[in-house]
Automatic annotation (TrEMBL):
Protein name: Peptidase M20 dimerisation domain-containing protein
InterPro entries from the UniProt entry: Amidohydrolase, Bact_exopeptidase_dim_dom, Peptidase_M20, Peptidase_M20_dimer
Lyase is among the record's keywords: no
Alphabetic keyword roster: Hydrolase
Domain Peptidase M20 dimerisation per the UniProt entry, residue ranges: 48-142
GO-annotated molecular function: hydrolase activity
Amino acid sequence: GGAGARKIMGSGLLAKADAIFACHLDRHFKVGNIVAQAGSISAFTDRFDITVKGKGGHAAQPHDTVDAIVIASLIVMSLQTIVSREVNPLHPSIVSVGKIAGGSVPNAVADSATLLGTIRTTETQVRKQIKAGIQRIANAAGVLHNARVEVEFIEGYPSVINTVEESKIARQAIVNIIGDEALVDTRYVTMGGEDFSFYLEKIPGCLIRLGAQKKGLENVPAHSSTFDFDEDALGIGAAFLAEAAKLTIDSLAKK
């Protein structure tokens, strides 16, 4: 989550780089299966923080209060309609509230509540549309219930967009070291985030998904405390990077 790639790009260390390649382990595919394709392969990732400021009081006298928890709950439910009713279903998108907090005791109406959530999108325009929708819903809930609602957006990672020429090189490298049978074509974009995207904003390149599924752990998700992978994938990854570098150097020499 620290966006190390952004810091490296800011350092200038890769200012003269002609191309860049990387491997990402993927538990969905067996060792020897690899995904390498051009275009967008991951989501934009943004965060939102919503603070509801109402008026606290005794739970026995709710008419003298502005219940921040009720308003926050309304916002949570209303946010669900942005993706389901406002975004084109052909554009994968997610709005999830991961944390809600408010109040301190059972017999008092909370004067404030907070919502923390994430936005995942694959299109720049949809990214803007969803942020506008969240702001609109939060503002409307505040007006409807006489509360003050504040929204803050924290920009996350861009989408990983593999360049066409480097994706061709990546695919050829895979064929050279394993064969055509290794290539797996997918028609979906992962909704996870990846800071390799910061490299690709400035340098042509390709991030591949390296099959690393371990027998018996097929259903254990990445980032789980019990996640593990088949280490045979490491040798394939190293061979791929070496072959991709060789093919890139050969290609640059011809220009």
